[in-house]
């Protein structure tokens, strides 16, 4: 008999008729079907201490999620489902939030783009270095220096990176798998609940909607000798629901919505707001995401655009997204206090 993952894909149609699961059932599902990372409590304490420290200094804290999740198909994982996200949006947004006075918890996919190093990610390290005195000098001094022609902006980036490190303004936390992402996001939400409305959640990661529960996953590498592979995957619990209602109910929460079909995008963004009752959705289409997004709230809709001229002037759309959201966060905090 074939194991259950060889049955045909049925989750999409089933999920349409399923009601939103109750919060407690999501908590149960997380514990039962998604392996808990061994360091989750330690990371939670680190995040809570970070939030306390910056709150005492009068700083707001934003939790940014960034990059794509990895969904294993086997428990001794050889193969997994992944997605396109580079982490650029999360990494660049982290820099703009810090420039706007926030402290940032950067929950990101291992090896995705990282604040301050992101612009150098495509450069081969050995092309960026040279021997002092030029090529012929290699055997003499052996002293290695940066090739400023390859890395013209390195000094500026290094200076800013060191200032941020000195000010303890960036707390990087890594995930790879969907399970790690879900448990660490829950831990982050609980850790930030102590600072109430001064916490912002900026959920830019591209998170899988489908997974194979641990109990149904084959242990060993799936064998091609069994014939064509048909996968049946479960729906990932909608973690935004307990995050907004339970774990961080005072916080300012922004989700992101990505579609490839522009005609359904705004409708889906509004539906997400209706369902989860959070503060805003940043809606974007895959191909145009670097130049156009819409920030949707219950009463407003703001189109943010970066033109070719802006790009020549090194303006990035994340600067505009962050500016829009930090203003909205200000208003939110004032309203909550009043
Ligand atoms: O990581 P990136 O810069 O390549 O892309 C950013 C993005 C498109 C993943 C983000 O803007 C986004 O829409 N995240 C949510 C994706 C989703 O709906 O699942």
Automatic annotation (TrEMBL):
One Pfam match: DFP
Domain DNA/pantothenate metabolism flavoprotein C-terminal, residue spans: 60-113, 191-313
Domain of life from the UniProt record: Eukaryota
Listed InterPro entries: CoaB-like_sf, DNA/pantothenate-metab_flavo_C
Molecular function via GO: phosphopantothenate--cysteine ligase activity
Biological function: Catalyzes the second step in the biosynthesis of coenzyme A from vitamin B5, where cysteine is conjugated to 4'-phosphopantothenate to form 4-phosphopantothenoylcysteine. Has a preference for ATP over CTP as a cosubstrate.
Similarity comment: family membership: Belongs to the PPC synthetase family.
Protein name, as recorded: Phosphopantothenate--cysteine ligase
């Amino acid at each position: 008999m074939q194991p259950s993952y060889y049955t045909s894909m049925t989750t999409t149609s089933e999920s349409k008729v399923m009601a939103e699961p109750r919060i407690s059932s999501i908590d149960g599902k997380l514990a039962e079907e998604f392996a808990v990372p061994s360091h989750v409590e330690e990371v939670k304490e680190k995040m809570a201490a970070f939030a306390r420290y910056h709150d005492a200094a009068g700083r707001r804290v934003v939790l940014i999620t960034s990059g794509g999740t990895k969904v294993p198909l086997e428990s001794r994982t050889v193969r997994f489902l992944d997605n396109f996200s580079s982490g650029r949006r999360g990494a660049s947004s982290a820099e703009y939030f810090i420039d706007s006075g926030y402290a940032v918890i950067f929950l990101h996919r291992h090896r995705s783009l990282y604040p301050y190093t992101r612009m150098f990610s495509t450069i081969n390290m050995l092309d960026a270095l040279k021997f002092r005195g030029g090529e012929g000098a290699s055997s003499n001094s052996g002293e290695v220096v940066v090739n400023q022609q390859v890395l013209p902006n390195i000094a500026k980036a290094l200076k800013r990176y060191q200032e941020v490190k000195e000010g303890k303004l960036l707390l990087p936390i890594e995930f790879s798998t969907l399970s790690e992402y879900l448990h660490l996001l829950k831990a982050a939400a609980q850790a930030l609940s102590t600072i109430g409305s001064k916490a912002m959640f900026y959920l830019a990661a591209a998170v899988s909607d489908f997974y194979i529960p641990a109990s149904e996953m084959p242990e060993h590498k799936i064998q091609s000798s069994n014939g064509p592979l048909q996968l049946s995957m479960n729906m990932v619990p909608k973690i935004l629901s307990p995050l907004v209602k339970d774990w961080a109910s005072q916080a300012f929460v922004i989700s992101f919505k990505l579609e490839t079909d522009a005609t359904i995008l705004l409708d889906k963004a509004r539906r997400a707001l209706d369902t989860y009752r959070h503060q805003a959705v940043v809606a974007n289409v895959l191909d145009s995401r670097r130049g156009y997004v819409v920030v949707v709230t219950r009463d407003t809709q703001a189109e943010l655009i970066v033109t070719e001229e802006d790009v020549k002037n090194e303006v990035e759309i994340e600067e505009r997204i962050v500016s829009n959201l930090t203003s909205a966060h200000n208003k939110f905090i004032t309203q909550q206090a009043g």
